[in-house]
Structures are given as C-alpha cells and as structure tokens.
Amino acid sequence: MSDDGHAGDPTPMLDAEDISVSLGDTRILSNVDIAAECGDFVGLVGPNGAGKTTALRALKATLAPDSGTVRIAGDAIDSLSSKEVSRLVASTPQATTLSFDFTVEQAVEMGRTPHLGRFERADSGDREAVRAAMERADVAQFADRAVTSLSGGERQRVLLARALAQETPVLLLDEPTANLDINHAVNTLELVADLVREDKTAVAAIHELNLAARYCDKLVLLADGAVRAAGPPNDVLQSETLADAFDAETLVTRQPGTDAPLVTPLADRESIDRTVHVVGTGGWAAAAVSRLVGAGVTVSVGVVPSGDATAERARELGCETVTVPPFAGVDADSRGRARELAAEADAVVVAGDVSDANQRVVAAARRVVAVEGEGVPATDSSRTVVATVDGLPEAVAMVPASDGDTASRHRVEGQDR
Amino acid sequence: MRFRNLTLAWTLALTALLAAVVTVSAAVGPVWIPPDAVAKVLLNAVAVPTAVDLTGATVGVTTQPIFGFQVRELQTQIVMRVRLPRVLLGAVVGFSLAAAGTIMQGIFRNPMADPSIIGVSSGAAVGAVGFIVLPVTLPLGLGLRGAAFVGAVLAAFGVYLIATENGRTPVATLLLAGVAVQTFLGAVVSFLLLNAGESIREALFWLMGHLRGASWPEVWSSLALVIVPFLALLAYARDLNVMLLGEEDAQSLGVDVERSKRVLLALSSFVTAAGVAVAGIIGFVGLVVPHVMRLLVGPDHRILLPTSALAGASFLVATDTLARSGATEVPVGIVTAALGAPFFLYLLRQREVHEL
C-alpha cells in the first residue's frame, strides 16, 4: 500500500508488534507480528493449535499479551476502555455459545451495545443498523426465530450479523466458515471481501488454505506460535513453507481462473500406480494434472501450446509435456510423440478444450477418462468414463494397468509415420 | 417500540395482580374482612402531601387523604395495624428474592443458581442464630435483623474475595467457593444449635423462614434497602443479557465484564440480604419464579427482571397467606418449598426448564 488508494496513511489500521503470550507454562505465541492496513483482508492460517485464536484474542484485547503491543489506528489497545475497543473492533467467536432462547433479532441487536449508554435506548439509527446487518449476513428471514432453533452454520451467520451491527472499522473473524457449506462459506468470504473494499479491515483465522488464498490480500502463516511466513498468498503458500508448518507434503499449483495458489495435500496413502496422459488446455486440464500428480499418478501432457495454464502446471510438476509454440498449429512430430504417450498410458484424461489435432491423440488411447465439464468429447462410450476433477484418481485407479504391452505402441507408430 | 410496550404491559399486569393478591391476603385471617372493605381501607390510606413545613428543626409534611370511604373502624385497625405490615413485608421479601435469583441465574449462566448461591443465606443464618443463641449484645444497637444482614453481606463478600484472583472472578470458582462456604457456615449453625438450649425453638423458627411479627418500620426500611439496589440492577440488565453470550463475547461487545459482575454480585447480594434479614431463609422463590417468568417473557433481563420481581412478590404474599391461615401457623419457608419444588419438578419433566 504505497501511493495508490490509501495514500498518506502511515499507520496501519491494526498493528500487533512482537506479541508473546503464555498461558500457564505454555508458550502460545512468540514474537508474533501481524499488521493490516485499512482495506486489507488478512488471513491467519496454520495448523490446529498454531495460536490463531490466541492471536485474535490479543488483537481484540480480551487477552493481554505478556509482551508486545497491539495498536488500533495508532492507539495502544491497552490504553483504550473495553467500550472504546468495541467501537473499533468487532469479532465473531469460533464456537457459538448462543444456547438460550434469544431471537435472532435480539442477538444481532446486542451488536449495538457499544454504541448505547447505560440509560440509552436503541433509536431508529440502531434499528436500521440491525436490519442492514441481518440483510447482509442473510439472516433477515430468521429474525423472529430463536437462535437455539438454528443450525450451526446459520448461527455463525447470526454472529457475523452481530459483528456487522457493531459498525466497526475492524472485523476479526475466528473460523468464519468452519460450520458453513461451500456455498455459504464462499458467500461469507465474498461479503468480507466486499466490506474490505468499502475500506474496512478484516483479519480472519481460516482453516481452509485454498479459500484463504482466494479471498485474502495477505496471509500470515502461524505454526507453533510463531509466524512462519507473511505476505501475499503466492509468497506464503509454498510447498517448503507448508511442509515445515503442517508437517505434510503438499502440492501448490494455481486455482483455475485466478492467480491464487491451490494447495493440494498429498496423502500418505499408497499412490496410484498408473500412467496417464492428459489432453486439454486451460484451468480444467491444469486442475486435472494437479489432482492426478497429487494422487501419485504418473502424468504426461500434450499437445499443449507453451504458455497455456496446463503447460505451465505440467512444467512446474515435472511432467513429460509435448508443447508447441502458441498459435503455430500442431506439427507431425509433436502429434506423433503425444500419440505415443497416449498409447503407452493406462488411460488418457480429457479435460477442457480439445483441438482437432488432439482428437487424434485421444483416438490412440486404450481408455479415456473424460472430466465432467465443457468440451467432453463424444467418443466411443465403451472405453470412456466420466469423472469430476476430484474423482479423477479413483476413476484412474479403476482402469486396468497395462502389463508392459508394447504391441499397440508399435502398431500406432507404424500407422502414424 | 414493540418491546417497550410489551415490558410495560407485563409490568402493569403483574402490578395489578400484586394489588389483587395483597387485597385478598389482607382479607384473610381469624376475622374475615370482605375484600371490597379492604380495598376501601387501602384507598383511604393513600394520601397526597398538601403542605411542606420547612420552618422547624425537622421537615414537616402535611398530607391529605384523597378518598374518604366509610369503613368500620375495627376493620381499618385490623387491616392497617395487624395484617398489612405482614402482607407488604412478604411482598418486599418475595420481590427481593425473585429479583436476586434472576440476576444470579444470569451471572452464573446456570439454572440451578439461586439468591443464596454465594453464601448470603448461610451468612445470615450464622448472624441470626448467633444472635439468638449467644449472650452477646451487638454494637450500634443492632438487633436480630441487623445481625442477620451483617452476616449475609460478610459471607457474600468473603466468597467473592476467595474466588477473586488478579482482579478476575471466574464464575466457576465463585460457584465452588460459594458451595464450600455454605457448607462451612452450615456447620457453624449446627454447632450453635447444639448449644442453643432454651432458645433453639426461636432459632429453628428463624431458619425456616417466616414473616411473623412484621411492623411498619420493618416494611419501610426493607423496602428502602431493596428498591434502590433494584433500580441500579435494572440499569445493568442489558449488560447481563450480553454476558449470557459468554464473558469473552461480552467483553468484545464493550461490556466491562469483571466490573459488571462485581456490581451485579454486590447489588443482588445486598438485595437478598435485605430480604433474608427480615424473613429468615425462604427457599425456592428465587429459584422457581425466575424460571417461570423466563418461560413467559423470554430471556431478556430488561423485561425478565421487573416481571420476576413482581411475580415473586405476589407468590410470597399468596404462600404466606396459606401459611398463616391454618389452625396453627406454619413457617412460610415450608410452604414455598412444599409448593415450589413439585411445580419445578413438573416443569423439569415437561422439558420446559433446561437452560437459561
């Protein structure tokens, strides 16, 4: 944030510097720095027990750090009264303790508490804020229902509405999507992203790395109470960093359609002993390549124009790839090599757009697994199965392995040359 | 607006109920006085100040009755001198216990909390039984009520101090400290009773809770002791609502949780002490009445607190009427428990009472 947008704003909206917290004899956070400028959406990511919730508690002053300072808009948070803090920072808790019969409207109204004096009553402005917050969090239809009668995900949205009714410049969200289905999870994060565009500042602990990568401007990766990496998602979510923080092998690629990183955990289970040739271009084929490599399948790719998302992905993952220059058409050598790979493989996976030249590559396949979506080729159905990107490894595992049968390969070579 | 009207409607309805219960209760006794005659007596007693005399050493207020209904003098005497002090004292005590019970259930977020949970009643019992049994005279001319009041406040304060560390008072610690202190003070009371000799009957009668021998000065003093902290509690009703969300949430909504807890505990202990000091230990009012009212008006303390208090007043006046209308008078504490416990169990079985 230099000269664009928030020019001349030298102090970050929220700035935690060198925070250390111990509970009893256990060190929960060591020398943690978290900064968020006005209009930033910062995601706290990290394994369970990394200290994400504790960090959020320090940021909203419900926990005083042993050392370090938290500043909000330049003021040290411990110099502010809890009422003053609550006009600056709204938060949603992780576990919902709303277990009594307040109605949704009453619960959201509690968000107005910071703005009301002891003897003051809610006025029309307060009621408008409550109504608007319920609309935005999509809970207006539950207004008169008891909070106890709602599902976990609905309650989580009620808590978000309460935080919105607080009308603070800073929002702290602890696992805002933990109980939500994917649709509401995306809606919730879209809403936070919208709020951030309206110059609010949000910090959220988010478990799901790919959602965090997609919506946050910055990520702070915590592990064992320390910051392992901080910065734009692409810088933070690197295989080596993640291996260190999560103690797990991951595969980092790109999410289809965006520049956000896509993290695929590599399961410890036995990898699938198959070879697959992927035909197709664009995000779909790239996702298929990632998924298959992630599952331990040996993958080759082609023919793809160099520079295509799939070519890039295949290169990153070290797959054998047949590329041609963009817009140059497919030469006979490349096609021949791709047909060879396709014929050798246990199956050919078809994803995304398939050019005419590549149709001939597909034709060389013993088996075809087509990825559900646009451009599923009309092929001889007896050797074709259709699978989703997520279901690809299972579909490939069902394909019988070739037992070093080279006859077909030779036959194909003979025909093509 | 809707909420305000609802609060007002409930408050008015329960005030009317209380007036009716008081009238009927004052009609019942060895001599039956028709309720309409009681009502006339009560209305005749309503007076407005007409002149204030500031010339003398003390301020003199001249009052003028508004109504002048014809009532037999004997009936006026019975109602005003004998029955009304007791009935009104019952109303004040019921009011205080139900109000304090509502607050304690809210603070502890626990449906089993009642006004004596932090040792108020046990402290009062030690004070009262000690005063009855031991041959001591207290300073400042404190009598039985004074001893009970002081004991109650000291016990509550002691529990609070025990449970507080570094300026924080976790409710779980408070609850356990309260239980332990109650047990200890119970032992003290038992020991005192063991050596009570002649006075054991008086001590037991106090422990069972009764409203016998009420007088106008007692009514006025306990009313004053209850109503002022009650109004302060009303000002904290919204904080208490937010605190039901859990202390962490309450704090992030700008409630100074530790301070609010301290104020609420102090005020509700004071209110309880004022009630227990004049009436002894009367159980179940502070437990059952808030539950029933929560079923009727919901969990919002801005409406729950006043309605519970008024309902508690009506409940204790009604049960005390039963307690004194038998052949021999029964301590009202026995009647409230005998009626309250089965009713509470009924609610429990209906799954109406399970959480706040």
Structure description:
The complex is a heterodimer of chains A (417) and B (356). By secondary structure, chain A is α/β, with parallel strands linked by helices. Chain A has two domains: 14-249, P-loop containing nucleotide triphosphate hydrolases (Rossmann fold), CATH 3.40.50; 275-416, Rossmann fold (3-Layer(aba) Sandwich), CATH 3.40.50. Chain A is built from 15 helices and 18 strands. Chain A has a six-stranded mixed sheet with strand order 6-7-8-3-9-10, with helices on both faces. In chain A, α13 (356-363) links the parallel β16 and β17. Chain A is elongated, with a radius of gyration of 26 Å. The model of chain A is unreliable at 1-8 and 405-417 (pLDDT under 50). With 356 residues, chain B is mostly helical. Chain B has one domain (84-349): ABC transporter involved in vitamin B12 uptake, BtuC. Chain B is built from 14 helices and two strands, in the order ααββαααααααααααα. Chain B has helices at 2-27, 35-45, 73-108, 120-133, 144-163, 171-194, 200-208, 216-235, 237-243, 247-252, 257-279, 285-297, 301-324, 332-349; strands spanning 47-53, 60-65. A two-stranded antiparallel sheet of chain B has the order 1-2. In chain B, β1 (47-53) and β2 (60-65) form a beta hairpin. The longest helix of chain B is centred in the N-terminal third of the chain and has 36 residues, at 73-108. Chain B is globular, with a radius of gyration of 21 Å. The two termini of chain B are 25 Å apart. The interface between A and B is medium-sized, with 32 and 23 residues.
